[in-house]
Structures are given as structure tokens and as C-alpha cells.
Design a protein that fits this description.
With 384 residues, this protein is an alpha/beta fold. It contains 17 helices and 5 strands.
């Protein structure tokens, strides 16, 4: 993969190319943004530029180098990513044990999400992480000399999943890396990375992709018609991975919308209606039976849908991309109930729920509490 295959982000591409041309490559860099914005494809393209620059342009050696990077098989290109035990790896999971699955996953869609990766491994009911054993593996791999005598590149995907022990061990590598070693830390949640690591990395922030670039990529890479591509790009909210799921109609949004509609309808009825409380508890138990990654993804979906409802309420039409799939549900009719007097409290309640799910709280209690809070909040009057 080279820079020509990366969707958009031309200003970031230009910056990264100049760091190589000027011989001023930062040894530790933090790529911050949504995975659907292109963090991983950009990191791989940058790695190719670094690893293959030693060979003459147009030479056979350079072509071979590019091919090895394109297949994610270059001996000086290393990857680390969140993992957990599954049906095959029963204990002590580290990235190297899942290298074949990783290659297939990335070559299929380098814009894919963490949830997609966990589904590939069959661990969506667990929470993947990057543990201290991984830090030891990283140290061993980077202590070796570069196979081709140039740079060594280590890409840590979803670096916010490093646990404290791993992050502390990585810190020494970030502070004093081996010669010609580049660490690329890719993250969607910068604030969850150890502050001492963040402070020692050069940061690049990846904006969401413009609609026209997503539409163009869908047309050229996936033969999507112009009208369909425009519609999907509007709904994707700057996330190319979401655009692909919308095109392939294999995402979770339909299921999540169904859960959401059932939830808010029951919450509306629950005020002064004891029978509906039982329905809310039943709904909570259903969601609690899902895997934790699914629960977090659903809560994030709810955050965005409440935000879309508020934007609809205040007539910010240019920012609205949601289109209802669930029969009988209309965001236009729902929007008046989401306003300045309750959106902050609803957002806070959802973020609280995500926080507790991430820390392995009791899911039945988390979702029951959230549902009861929503019952009160959704009936809050709008202050004029």
C-alpha cells in the first residue's frame, strides 16, 4: 500500500513525505482519529516510504520491497494490536499468534474498526487489550538489527488498549528507541494513552473524510453508482469503514436502530406506568446478554442518534445524515423531545454507561439504571 491508495488526507501525506525527504523522521508519532479516517492505511503507506527509500527508484529491489510491504510481510515492518483468548489461542495471547488473521483482516479492509477485528477473532464478547507480554515482544523485536539495513517500523494499532503495565514498559522505548526505529501509535482515544507517552510523541490529527472523497472512493474502488455513492457518503459521517458497511448492508446499524426505537418508546410510556418499567428491565436484560464490545458500540450509536435528533430539532439540516430504517420511526417526530435542557444529561448518562461497561460492571444494572434515567430525561420540558 502506498500513498496513492490512501483516501484523502493529502496535507498529512505531504507532511509525512517531507519528514523522510528532509531526514527529520520523529522516532515516535501518534496518529489520532477515527479508524475510518485512514490511520492504518496512512501508517502502512508511510512505513513503505521509510522502508523502501534505501533502494533506487524504479529498481527491482524497490519493487520487491513495496510488494513485501503491500503483503504485510516485510521483515522490518511489525504490528501490534489488541487481542484476547479465543477458541484457538487459549492462554497468553499476543499479536504474533494472530498474524495470519491480521494480514487477512487488513488486506480485506484497512479502514476496518476495532469491533470488526474482534469479530474476526471471535472475541466480541470479550475486551481485547495490549498487555505486558506484548511489551516484552516489542522490545525483543526492536532490539534486533534491521533485516534490510534501513529503518524498522512498529505500528501499534489502537494504542489506547495498552494496559498500564504495558504502557510503562513501552515508555522506555519511546524515550530511548534503538537507532533507525520508528514507533507509530494509532489511536481513536488519545486521552486514554499514558500522558508521559503522549508528551514524547509527535501528534498528527486525522479529520473525518469529506463526503465527496468517500463518494469518489466508493465509485472507483467498489464500482458504486454515483447516486448511491453520494447517499452513502452522506450517511457515513466521514467514516469510510461505515460507508463500506452501508454499501454491503452488513453493519449493525439496523439492529441498533431497532433496539434504540424499542428503548425510547418504552421509556416514553414508562412515566407513571409501572407495567412499562418491567418492559424496560426486560430490554436491559436483552442488551446485557450481548458482548461488551457490542454494548459499547450500541451506546456510541445512541450518542450519535441523540445528537442527530437535537440537530434536527434546531433545524441544522446540513449536519443531519441519519435516515430511519425502522418502520414507524421518524427522527423529525422524535427530535422535539431532544433539546438544550436534556441533551447534556442524556450524553452524560450514556458516557457513564460506556465507562462502566469498559470496566466490567454488571451490565444488567448498568442498562437498567440508564433506562430509568432516560425515562425521566426524555420527558424534561424544553426551556424557552
Amino acid at each position: 500500500m502506498d500513498f496513492s491508495e490512501v483516501i484523502g488526507q493529502k496535507h498529512l501525506q505531504s507532511h509525512l513525505i517531507k519528514t523522510v525527504e528532509n531526514g527529520r523522521v520523529p522516532h515516535a508519532q501518534l496518529f489520532v482519529g477515527n479508524s475510518g479516517s485512514g490511520l492504518l492505511p496512512m501508517a502502512i503507506a508511510y512505513a513503505q516510504h521509510l522502508l523502501c527509500q534505501a533502494h533506487e527508484p524504479g529498481s527491482i529491489d524497490r519493487q520487491h520491497c513495496k510488494q513485501k510491504v503491500a503483503k504485510l510481510a516485510h521483515p522490518d515492518l511489525h504490528f501490534v494490536y489488541p487481542v484476547n483468548t479465543n477458541d484457538i489461542v487459549k492462554k497468553n495471547p499476543v499479536s504474533s499468534l494472530f498474524s495470519e488473521e491480521w494480514r487477512t483482516f487488513v488486506l480485506s479492509n484497512p479502514y476496518a474498526s476495532l469491533f470488526d477485528w474482534f469479530q474476526t477473532l471471535g472475541i466480541e464478547n470479550k475486551q481485547g487489550n495490549i498487555n505486558v507480554r506484548e511489551a516484552e515482544e516489542i522490545s525483543k523485536r526492536l532490539s534486533l538489527k534491521a533485516y534490510e539495513g534501513g529503518y524498522k517500523v512498529m505500528i501499534i494499532w489502537m494504542a489506547e488498549k495498552m494496559n498500564t503495565e504495558c504502557a510503562n514498559k513501552i515508555l522506555k522505548l519511546v524515550e530511548e528507541p534503538p537507532e533507525k526505529t520508528v514507533l507509530l501509535l494509532l489511536t481513536e482515544q488519545e486521552e486514554q494513552i499514558l500522558a508521559t507517552i503522549r508528551s514524547r510523541c509527535q501528534r498528527l490529527h486525522f479529520p473525518l473524510l469529506p463526503e465527496e472523497q468517500i463518494a469518489k472512493a466508493l465509485q472507483t474502488k467498489h464500482a458504486v453508482s454515483e447516486n448511491v455513492a453520494k447517499k452513502i457518503s452522506r450517511q457515513s459521517h466521514g467514516d469510510f469503514n461505515k460507508a463500506l458497511h452501508l454499501f454491503q448492508q452488513d453493519g449493525d446499524d439496523k439492529v441498533f436502530e431497532k433496539w434504540f426505537v424499542q428503548w425510547v418508546r418504552t421509556a416514553f410510556k414508562a412515566k407513571g406506568n409501572k407495567g412499562s418499567i418491567h418492559s424496560l428491565i426486560s430490554w436491559s436484560e436483552t442488551i446485557a446478554g450481548e458482548g461488551r464490545e457490542t454494548q459499547k458500540k450500541f451506546l456510541t450509536f445512541c450518542l450519535e442518534l441523540f445528537r442527530q435528533a437535537m440537530l434536527q430539532n434546531y433545524k441544522a439540516d446540513s449536519l443531519i445524515f441519519f435516515e430511519a430504517q425502522e418502520p414507524g420511526f421518524s427522527i423529525q417526530k422524535f427530535a422535539p423531545f431532544i433539546h438544550q435542557n436534556n441533551i447534556y444529561a442524556i450524553t452524560h448518562a450514556l458516557e457513564d454507561a460506556i465507562y462502566h461497561v469498559e470496566r466490567n460492571g454488571n451490565a444488567k444494572i448498568i442498562f437498567t439504571d440508564l433506562s430509568i434515567r432516560l425515562t425521566r430525561l426524555i420527558h424534561a420540558p424544553e426551556q424557552v
